Amino acid sequence: MTDDALLKQIDESTKAFSRHQDDTLRSILQHQCGVHYLQRYLPDIGDHSLTIDAATFRRSVPLFCYDDYVRIQLHILSGSMKQYYSKLKYYAGEVPLVGGDYFSSECCVAINLDIKQPPDQTRFVMLPTASYFEFLPFDSTENNVVGEETVDACGVEVGKMYEVVVTTYRGFYRYRLGDIVRVVGFYNSSPLLEFVMRAPKASYEIVTEGDLMAAMETFQLVLRNTMGMAIEIMEFTSSVEFGSSPKRQKIFIELKDCNTSLQNKLRESMLLLKECCAALEDDLGSIYKVQRNKGEISPLSLSILKCGNFDRLLKLAIENGTPASQYKPPKIIRNPSIVGVLEEYVLVNITLD
């Protein structure tokens, strides 16, 4: 198929997004009507797969997410690769960096029709024939989805955020991808999406991946200006410590080329580092600020790690079955044993108590 023919096909399919979505769902149910899981919730699917509409499907089949599908040891939040964009841009020089398409491990979600836009401005056009899509409304002020009532593509509103739910040809039914997207417009009748972050997985999480990444961008500038050195943050992650009363947000960072001279400088500059840590805490998002002001969380803790610590997490993940090609450094860690690996190699710890 030529590029022109492909673009014409995309253009025609997105003009009737809802109709193509109905056809896609009908095709999935027709091909998989013998699956026991579907028969549990749609007992008449064998005889009536072609007559089951989207409303009946959404009402009858429950939502499920990755934790319902399989348990993994590390419980690592994948996140986006946004934090590396500025570094890649620096090393690429005049070579343009372009955004890719929106693929998950489960299916193709959307494509980028304007590859000339830089990755931080990429917008994705949903493909109505790739899978059947639903959207769970997400409330950024509450840091959670709003109930379990989904809407289809016709029900999404520009400017609002949603968690993407898919039903695929490969046996995922009403599966929550864990991706939070913002609807920024429409391409014909197809939603135009902007990837925001990975979805929080627990109500106790007080800093979202998006909050953390935005705060760390500012923190690096503050750290350089305050310390008077060209310090570069190579990696970072966070977790919630429940051993403190009240609970405490902990952030771990690893610096580039943290040699003996820099290590000594850091140890001698605890007051300056405390100022930087205070600035970081001020940027951790509205949810954190509200709980901090209410006294529901303890002051922030920041740990600067010895070099190579995040490589240890990579090795541990691979040892536990994670493909090296799919591993991304975690931004939110929920497993205390993984936090323990980081805490074994702390160089400097700053707490705002």
Describe the protein.
This protein is an alpha+beta fold and 353 residues long. Helices cover 35% and strands 22% of the residues. The chain contains 13 helices and twelve strands. The chain has helices at 3-15, 17-31, 36-41, 45-48, 54-60, 66-69, 85-92, 209-227, 260-267, 270-282, 286-293, 309-319, 336-343, and strands at residues 102-103, 108-111, 124-126, 132-139, 144-145, 161-167, 175-187, 190-198, 233-241, 248-255, 298-305, 346-351. The strands form two sheets. Strands 1-2-3-8-7-6-4-5 form an eight-stranded antiparallel beta sheet. Strands 9-10-11-12 form a four-stranded mixed beta sheet. Helix 8 (209-227) runs antiparallel to helix 10 (270-282). The protein is globular, with a radius of gyration of 23 Å. The termini are far apart.
Question: How many beta-strand elements?
Answer: 12
Low-pLDDT runs of 5+ residues are 68-80
Strand content range? 15-25%
Characterize the biggest β-sheet.
8 strands, antiparallel
General shape = globular
**Residues in helices, as a percent range:** 25-40%
Rounded average pLDDT: 80
Question: What's the gyration radius in Å?
Answer: 23 Å
Q: Tally the helices.
A: 13
Structural class: alpha+beta
Main β-sheet, spatial strand arrangement: 1-2-3-8-7-6-4-5
Q: Tell me the span between the first and last alpha carbons.
A: 63 Å
Give the H and E element order: HHHHHHHEEEEEEEEHEEHHHEHHE
